[in-house]
Amino acid sequence: LHEMKRIDDGEIAMNELAGFFGELFGIRLDARSFYDAYTDIKRRKGESRTYFLDKLRERLNLRMQRDDEKERERRR
Fold it and tell me: Tens digits of per-residue pLDDT, 37-48?
């Protein structure tokens, strides 16, 4: 979200973003946790560094395909 400038046109500081998501999910998050997670992702050497996001995208696309199919079935 930060990289895509989706919150405050990308002007929000990471520590503010961490605080926002921490409050949203009822957990303590700080900028250090964000940076540590990013560093961990960067260190991955497998097929995909972003396997969670890849799986999320895949599942969302499958759901939309199923919904499209249901809509086609209803129209028949």
Answer: 889 999 999 889
pLDDT score at 46: 86
pTM of the predicted structure, to 2 decimals? 0.69
The structure tokens listed for 46 are 């497998």
Whether residues 36 and 68 share a domain: the answer is no
Torsion angle of the four alpha carbons 50, 53, 59, 62, in this order, in degrees rounded to the nearest 10: -80
**Is 33 in the same domain as 56?**
no
Radius of gyration of the chain (CA): 18
- 30 contacts 21 by C-beta, under 8 angstroms: no
